Each structure stands twice: as structure tokens, then as C-alpha cells.
Amino acid sequence: MGIPSKYSAESVETKWYNYWMTHNYFHSTPDEREPYTIVIPPPNVTGVLHMGHMLNNTIQDVLIRRARLKGKNACWVPGTDHASIATEAKVVAKLKAQGIDKNDLSREEFLKHAWEWTEEYGGVILDQLKKLGCSCDWDRTKFTMDDDMSEAVIKVFVDLYNKGLIYRGYRMVNWDPEAKTTLSDEEVIYVEKQGFLYYITYQVEGSDDTLVIATTRPETIFGDTAICINPNDERFTHLKGKNAIVPICGRVIPIIEDEYVDVEFGTGCLKVTPAHDENDKVLGDKHHLEVVDIFNEDASLNSFGMHYEGQDRFVVRKAIVRELKEADKLVKTENYTNKVGTSERTKAIIEPRLSDQWFLKMEDLAKPALDAVLTNGDVKLFPKKFENTYRHWMENIRDWNISRQLLWGQQIPAYYYGDGKEDFVVAETIDDAHALIKEKGIRIEREDIRQDSDALDTWFSSWLWPMSVFDGIRDPENEEIKYYYPTNDLVTGPDILFFWVARMIIAGYEYKDQRPFENVYLTGLVRDKQRRKMSKSLGNSPDALKLIEDYGADGVRVGLLLSSAAGNDLMFDEDLCQQGKQFANKIWNAFRLVKGWDVDDTIIQPNSSKIAIEWFESKFQKTIADIEDHFSKYRLSDALMATYKLIWDDFASWLLEIIKPAYQQPIDAKTLEQVIVLFEDILKILHPFMPFLTEEIWQYIEERSPEEALIIAKWPETKAINESLISEFDFASEVISGIRNIRKQKNIAFKDAIAFSAVNNENVSTSFDEVISKLGNLESFEYINESIDGALTFRVKSNEYFIPMEGSIDVEAEVKKLTEELNYTEGFLTSVQKKLSNERFVNNAPEQVVASEKKKEADALAKIETLKSSLASLQ
How far apart are alpha carbons 640 and 638 in whole angstroms? Predict the structure, then answer.
């Protein structure tokens, strides 16, 4: 079949992905081979492919394709996460656009809409991953809301509850007023914001005395139930035992004493709002204060907000400042910068809120996971620097708030049979719950049992992912979980090291008494050239599919990987993808060159080709050893660069140049056969990085059966490395470069053969002399004992090389050229020396300017000396 003159990524990618899918190369079933398993970090079902996904999944595909080539039973499990908050928000927005209010729907009706939305949009990102070349086992695609996955989540909840690790508590939680749900501490992102400190006057009851408090949130005065002073603060001894009157609402509140108050901050008087601040809640419990919750679930003010009822908290803040000012209760305002908690999902500012929620006790559960990373090394983080972050989180772990006020997600399996807070049982099904209730001696009809309306935190399903995708929770002894678990590598971002990675390790030890994976490769964030994080709002995130369309999937993969060392942020530049595309074209053209040569079976293999192939075989083996080392340290960028240099420099620029037959002449059969074998080995080590291009060339080399496809070929065998041969070639290549430099400088056409001599002071091997002769186009190459006067010369280390001038160059033209250059340089020297002889210039010009002129003088003097010497040798 004819080879196209240009490589067309678009047609090649579609063709080979369909071929791989048709022949089921991505699918894995347990067998006698060593398994190699990766579970995908499940992207949100709401998601579309962005640069972070591109990087993360390219790395996973490189690892899985390499394992497949190395003869392992490679299994990459794909899937998506139901993403409770994000997905519910999208469904609510869609319903709103249709004029439907979520609150008017039953749970079943809302879930019907959510499933319809998921079925319509849920597979988009997985289809996009196929465009990138991801060789996932699509037959195993999982969704965290699949029936079997949900059953596993409920089973774990019930088990942990029965172990006394899950409890229901009335606690201060993080409330997202936009999503109208609680969040765990880890889902709160603290952002530095510029605000104000407001100084407000409170009247002391029954006197003309006043006190001043400083607050960043004046709207919360409606929830004040005390003023607190430090008992050691002499400024306020006169206030002890008295009451204060809250401005506007007129509530009388006690003035209490506690050493918690910082006498240095603000005014030394602290307003206490137990319903809206975690520390205030502690103070409130200690001093038995009233708790006044002033907010609705959307953070608008409730009836305690008086005439501000129903208004948004930030609208009220501005209005109440005006009202306080008019009432002469606002002393002053100051600029104030503080860190404000925001929702990781909706970006809304979090409200601390007292609420009944479900919690998981984490302290004891976390210990095996802490030891796995930091003590016994069962789980290794790459790069190691993230161990400190992991340690900090795990040693300061708090109970996990696992309930969410959402409909989309696994419904908490708590069943209520009365009005009391403790009138519930926890069971996997309502029938089990009914049986448990009857065991308590309580008579109730099944239809009168009420299930908790909250859903579980999305992470409570994804922390089971490496086990649940193999049904290891419901059926812990099944063949697949025993074969594929623990998995090998996890590739993810450091931003979810605690959210997901740590929790999976915790779950792994709790339910399998094993690590869930051995290695965690933490990628960096993808940033733009200005080091800004890529985001839709900044408009600096390129369309991932458009990049693939413009540069080919292989080009984009190379572009991403060349600059993505583990744990370091990637400064993305489209030029990197262009570099990847050029690399693909380079390889394609090299292949076309090789396949374009005519073959003559009667020609004996030249020694230059024989030694060059021996050299490249050793160079190839040395590169493979380097690649193995890079992969062992998860330096995929370095592994790709080593492969890139081997192909671009050693194979295409040197080997093919050496073995290339003379113009319109055939190549000997042995050399061609050997170079094709080497080309095939190159394709094997390049395949994980550039799967489409390599499969295309592999199939063009010869007609192959499906069993011989590159994707399932055998990784090149390891052979001995001849280090001295590599070293000798490095020396020879410097000699060749020296010859080419002289040809270029002296304008000696390559078609003109030249004589060549060398004084071999280094006593180097003569193995590559024929290679030097061919690539230098030498008519003769001899070793001599002493220098040749008047010859063109250069050195490599202490070896001297000579090209006699006679017949090599046009002496008359060279004398003319050198004379013109000498005259110009002498004129330039005169102008520089004139400037330096000017005392005014030397004394007044900046020091670096004078130094620069002196350097110009020295360079000109050296050049003049060289030019005069060259002229003397020609005359």
C-alpha cells in the first residue's frame, strides 16, 4: 500500500481507535498474568473535558499502555461521579428555565428529572476522553449512582453506624446558602477578602454608659445574646454584672466575662452570636446563653431581622450600617482584610449554622492510613513533598460531616418511627428497618416509617471507588476484587489529596485491610503562560477538543507531557502542542524515507552501516534503561524527553544519515532489515506517548493480523549496553561536526570530496572512521604523526584534524574575504579605542558601559590576530 506524503492525524485517530475497540484490546478479565490496575478519578457527570482532565488522563493512558506492552493484564476502569451539589444545581436551573420550582416536586419527581439530565449529558466527558486516545476498559464503566455502587455505599453506612462510628449530632456546620446544604470542612475554601471593621455603640442598661464593639458582620447584631469582656481587663471592671442593649432590635443581653476575649483586638469587648460563629457557640454553651438563629436557609434574614426580614445578608449589611449611622450608633469603620470561607462548589460565602447532621468519627479510622504513607511506606506519594501536607491533614483530622440537604445522591438509610430525635433505626432497606423497629416492641405500619430526607456527601461514595468498581463491598471475596485489588497507580491532583486520596486509603484499610493503591502520582495544575490557573471566568482555558483537531491527539499529548513534572504546575503554551505535531511529522517523514529506498540483495553491508547499527542498538538500550529509571520515579516528562531525543537526534539525524544510500542508489538488504527492526522497537517505546501515529506506522511496515497489533506487542528485550561504543560515537560525531563547520565557514561544497588527516593524541578507536569519511565526504582519511602547516585545522579534545587547503578552497577568494573582514575589524577597533581614550567618557559613563567597550576592544584585537594568522597561512 502506498504511504501518504503527509500524516493526517484526524483520519488516523478515528481509524485506529475504532480498530482497537472492535478487537477489544482495552478489555481485561482475570487470568494468569500479573495485573496492572488503574481506577480513573471519576470526573463529575456534569463535566466536559478541560486541560486538567487532558493532562491527568494522558498520564494514566501512558501508564496503562506501557503496562500492556510489558505483558501485564492492564485494566483501566473508567466512570463518573454523580457530583451531588453541581448536578443538582444544573437540574434546578434547567427546571427553573421550564418554569418548574424544585420545591413543588416530590423527591421521586425531582430524581426523574435528574436521571433524565444525567442520561442526556452524563457520557459527554467519557466520549471526549476517547478522542484523546484513552484506552479505558469501557465495558467496566461505572457511575457512583449505579444500583450496585449505591448498595455498597448504604452497606458501608450501616456497618459504620453499627460500629459506633457514625452518629447524629446538633453541631455548628458550614452552610452553603446557594446550594442550601451543609459542607464538610474540606469543601470550604478560604479566600482573602477586603472588607471593613465596624465599631458599634451599645447602651449599658440603666445608665448613660456605653461600650463599643468591633465587628466585620454588623447584620448579625440581631443574633447577639451577650457581650463578653476579659475579666483581667481593667478598662471594663465597671461593666461586670451589668446588661447591654443591642442597637435597633433593643434586646437586653448580659455582659459576661471570659479569658477567651483578646484584650488587644478591636475594642476588647466581644459581641457573642452563638448561632453564627463556632467560637461564639463554645462561649454560649459555657455560659448557658440563648441561641438566636437569624438566617433562612438562603442566608436572607428571618423574622428576628425585624424590618429586614426576607432581605439578603449583604443587602442588610449596607442598610444596617446606614441605619446605625443615622442613629448615631456607628463610631467609625476601618478597612479590614480577613479570610472568608467560600463553597468549593458554588463559590458562595459560607455561613456557620447550627444543624442536626450525620458525622463519621475519623480519628481512629485515620491511623492506619497515616501509617501507610508516613511510617511503613505501603502507599507512596510522588512527589514526596506532599507527605507533609498529608501529615498535617491526617494528624488534625476532624469528624466528617457526611449528610447533605440534597435530593440527588444516596439517601441516608435512617428510618424514623416517632417525633423524637432518637426515634430512628439505621438499616439497608425499609423492610430491614421495619423489622428492627418491631424488635424494639414498637407497633408501626411500614408505610408510616419515614426515611431521612438528606443525601450522603458525594465523597462518601467515591471513597469506596477502588473497591466498589470491582464489587468488593457487596461481595468481598469475588474473583475480580481478589485479582485486581489493590490497584497499582493512582493519578490525580494534589487539591483532592485529602478529599479523595486519604479517604480511599482509610476505606481500604477499614474494608480490605489493604492499601487501595501502591503509588499516588500527583500532577500539577495547568496554568497559562502568565502562571494564572486556567478557568472559564478568565477565558484562558483553550478548548480541549479544538486543540486535538488542530494538532492531533498525539501532538497534544506530547505537548502536555513535555512540561509536566510530577507535582509541578504546567505552564501551558499551545506552541508545545505544535512541537508535538512537528515531532509526529518528523517521525512520519523518517518512515517515508526508509520505506522509499530501493533494496539490492547483492550489496554487501558497508562497515559504516554495520558499526552505526551496533552503536544505535546500544544507544537504544541505554535510553530504555534511562526511561525505566524515569518511570520508576514518575518522571514521565523526562521519559518522554529521553525518547524524543533518541528518535529526533540519534535515529533520524544520525543513524538514517549514516545508512542512507547515495542519491538514486539502492540500500543493502541487511541494513534495511536491521533498521526496520530498530524502527519497530522505537515505535514500541513511543506508543504509550503517541499511540495513533505509532500504530499507523506499525501497520504500514507490513501487513499484520489483529494479534500482531502494536497496542499488544511485546516491549523490547533488554540487552547488553556497549558503553565504549557510545563514547566512541560521541567523539566521532564531534569530528564530523568539525568537518561540517569548516566546510560551512570556508564555503566548501559538500559534493566536493576533501582529503583529511589526524594526529591521534587521544588514541581513540578507529571504529567510526568510515562513518566520518561518509558523513564528511572525505576522499581520504589518514593518521599522521605531526601537524600540517597551512592546513585548515580543528581540535576535538587533544586530537588535531587537518584539511589541506590545496584544492579545497578558492585561495584568491578566501584572501579577499579575509582582507575585507580584517579591514572592517581594524576600523571598528579604531572607533572603540577613540571612545576609550576620551577621559570624559571613561569618567562619566556607567561602569558597565565602560566595561562593555573594553570587552569590544579585547574581542576585536583577538579577531584581528586570528585573521592575520589565517591570511599569513594563505600567502
Answer: 5
Count of structural domains within the chain: 5
CB-side neighbour CA atoms (13 Å) of 164? 2
pLDDT in tens, 662-716: 988 999 999 999 999 999 999 999 999 999 999 999 999 999 999 999 999 999 9
- Burial classification of residue 689, based on how many CB atoms lie within 10 Å of its CB (0-12 exposed, 13-18 middle, 19 or more buried): buried
567 & 689 share domain: yes
CA distance 640 to 73: 23
pLDDT in tens, 297-342: 999 999 999 999 999 999 999 999 999 999 999 999 999 988 999 9
Indicate if 825 and 795 belong to the same structural domain: no
Domain membership of residue 735 as a residue range: 725-809
Same structural domain, 624 and 742: no
Instruction: Report the sign of the C-alpha dihedral through residues 819, 821, 822, 828, in that order.
Output: positive
Distance CA 60, CA 54 (A): 10
Residue 232 is assigned to a structural domain of this protein: yes
Same domain flag for 609 and 700: yes
pLDDT tier at 639 (50, 70, 90 boundaries)? very high
Question: According to the model, what pLDDT value does residue 574 have?
Answer: 86
What CATH number is associated with residue 279?
Answer: 3.90.740.10
Structural domain contains residue 119: yes
Residue 867 has pLDDT above 80, yes or no: no
Question: Does residue 217 lie in a domain region?
Answer: yes
- Percent of the chain that is helix, strand, coil (3-state, to 5): 50, 20, 35
Share of residues in the chain with pLDDT > 90 (%): 76
pLDDT, position 767: 95
pTM (predicted TM-score): 0.86
- CA–CA dist 54, 58 (Å, integer): 6
Calpha distance 236→227 (Å, rounded): 12
